[in-house]
Amino acid sequence: MSEQGRAEGIVIAIDGPSGSGKSSTAKGVARVRELRYLDTGAMYRAMTWWMIEHQVDVDDAAAVADAASRPVITMGTDPNAPTVQVDGSDVARAIRGQAVTENVSAVSAVPAVRSLLVRQQRDIIASACAETAGIVVEGRDITTVVAPDAAVKVYLTASAEARAQRRSSEVSATDVAATQADLARRDLLDSSRAASPLTQTPDAMELDSTGLGLKEVVALVVKLVDDAPARVA
Ligand SMILES: Nc1ncnc2c1ncn2[C@@H]1O[C@H](COP(=O)(O)OP(=O)(O)O)[C@@H](O)[C@H]1O
Ligand SMILES: Nc1ccn([C@H]2C[C@H](O)[C@@H](COP(=O)(O)OP(=O)(O)O)O2)c(=O)n1
């Protein structure tokens, strides 16, 4: 504890597979408790978008590693208006495109990409904790690698069917079966890679959101936040 015993911002870490509700839940919790919000998946997507734009072969891990330090990725952490920029341009829409979604697992498996982005994520978390009440961070390795000492750790799941249904209802006329196959492909890549695979640690609270509404899930996580012991720096 410092001489002043100053209150330190809280860190809430949420991991889980695609479509489990991480982004919506994290934003909801951050709004309710006036915390910052960080979508780490958007950072891997931004890196992938830059690689595609610059014609780097995303299946060539050495080429990706060589280029990884070139894009400047900037994240805005207001949960009411989160932003993602690459080299000063807004890429929020572009990073949700099909080319990025198809290639993001390959880019995020490259250790040089991960070490760069994890360092940046930790810097964002440290600033939020120093300057605000704290931050909700979501991704695949937040509870295990980025913030293993987070005050609240959640592993959010939902059945494969529910996740595919949710994802495909975001876009009109999307084939649920095709979406489910794409999620399964990405889950497998993200869970089986050597570098920081998606894993559930025993100290992360498992929350199965199948059959639960978003409001209920947010309320459950807010309760965990409220019950977490206060930290001082
Ligand atoms: N508990 C829930 N019940 C129903 N739909 C949900 C729930 N949580 C999230 N959603 C919806 O599912 C979709 C995917 O959620 P999102 O938060 O983007 O997941 P993730 O970040 O894990 O990929 C979004 O359209 C979101 O509104
Ligand atoms: N902390 C993280 C977050 C995302 N990733 C990778 C793995 C995911 O397939 C991609 C995209 O993440 P994102 O959260 O945007 O994925 P979805 O919203 O679930 O489609 O990034 C990662 O490796 N580590």
From TrEMBL:
Gene3D superfamilies: P-loop containing nucleotide triphosphate hydrolases (3.40.50.300). One of its GO terms (cellular component) is cytoplasm. Residues 12-225 form the Cytidylate kinase domain. GO terms for molecular function: ATP binding; CMP kinase activity; dCMP kinase activity. It catalyses: dCMP + ATP = dCDP + ADP; CMP + ATP = CDP + ADP. Pfam families: Cytidylate_kin. It is found in: Cytoplasm. Its EC number is 2.7.4.25. Its main location: cytoplasm. InterPro entries: Cytidylate_kin (IPR003136), Cytidylate_kinase_dom (IPR011994), P-loop_NTPase (IPR027417). NCBIfam families: cmk (TIGR00017). Belongs to the cytidylate kinase family. Type 1 subfamily. This is Cytidylate kinase. The gene is cmk.
